[in-house]
């Protein structure tokens, strides 16, 4: 059987094996999809061993996405712009890198939630891997302004520079958050929720502000609790993006995009 895997550290909680298995049975495509835990030191060796054992494709999650891109012989423009790859495909004896996170987010917002992203003033909190992976797709989807605010301001500036759209992309200091007014959409792309708290002013949101956390489960709780307290009526966690980025990866590997609704529903039900 064709072999696929997700690499991460840790990886035991990854939902990708379950998602890809569900897609495979839905479309009648037989394959094996494993979760492989590799430390940053071991990642390159583990990936090479997987290729030697016949591995055809790999998803890559924290903390390996940047390293994964560096190990690719070729990569899509999207992956290069993100500086990170989450989807690796074996081609001519080498890895080809893609990044499906941004498309996954935009797909979730526009197709599942029917949100019109055009003319949106968007605040992106964070400038790490999650922000870099999704910001280009948001700009491509036609948002009006992207404001990037990061605890370490140099990383926000580096991301803005990499995006190369000074007319639409602005950076501010974390301390400026209280002076920025309200946004149409606030995206939490920080990993602060994993540490349990995030401190944001309520002036960033109105009840019509769409609040999006790119993480899910416990990690999304602090930001979404803030959004609820700020009055945001629409609050979204990263489960939809997770399922959609997986569907994009699946389509790259197997040539067909699965119906994501049943998988999304079963994962949402489980997440409560
Ligand atoms: P990921 O791939 O999840 O984005 P990352 O690349 O390590 O992981 O980036 C983590 C992001 O969360 C960064 O933007 C980080 O801010 P710094 O660049 O200043 O480190 C942000 N972050 C982590 N903990 C945070 C906290 N407690 N408050 C605000 N931002 C935080």
Task: Based on the model shown, name its key terms.
Rossmann fold, 272 residues, binds 2'-monophosphoadenosine-5'-diphosphate, six-stranded parallel beta sheet, 2 domains, six-stranded mixed beta sheet, alpha/beta, globular
List the helices and strands and how they pair.
Layout: E1 2-8, H1 16-27, E2 31-37, H2 43-52, E3 55-60, H3 65-70, E4 74-75, H4 77-82, E5 87-91, E6 94-98, H5 101-112, E7 121-125, H6 129-140, E8 145-150, H7 153-163, E9 169-173, E10 185-188, E11 210-213, H8 221-229, E12 234-236, H9 239-254, H10 261-271
Helix pairs in contact: 1-9, 5-6, 5-9
The structure holds 2'-monophosphoadenosine-5'-diphosphate.
Element string (H = helix, E = strand): EHEHEHEHEEHEHEHEEEHEHH
Q: Could you name the ranges where pLDDT drops below 50 across 5 or more consecutive residues?
A: none
Gross geometry:
globular
Annotated CATH architecture of the largest domain? 3-Layer(aba) Sandwich
Number of DSSP strand runs: 12
The total of helices stands at 10
Strand content: 15-25%
Write down the Rg.
Answer: 18 Å
What are the distinct ligands in this entry? 2'-monophosphoadenosine-5'-diphosphate
- Fourth-level CATH superfamily of the largest domain: NAD(P)-binding Rossmann-like Domain
Specify the CATH class of the largest domain.
Answer: Alpha Beta
Strand order of the largest sheet: 2-1-3-5-6-4
Q: Please identify the oligomeric state.
A: single chain
Structural class: alpha/beta
| N→C terminal distance | 34 Å
Largest sheet: 6 strands, mixed
State the share of residues found in helices, binned by percent.
Answer: 25-40%
Query: Which fold does the CATH topology of the largest domain refer to?
Result: Rossmann fold
Number of domains: 2
Query: What's the overall average pLDDT, rounded?
Result: 95
Pathway: Metabolic intermediate biosynthesis; chorismate biosynthesis; chorismate from D-erythrose 4-phosphate and phosphoenolpyruvate: step 4/7
EC number: 1.1.1.25
Keywords: Amino-acid biosynthesis, Aromatic amino acid biosynthesis, NADP, Oxidoreductase
Protein name: Shikimate dehydrogenase (NADP(+))
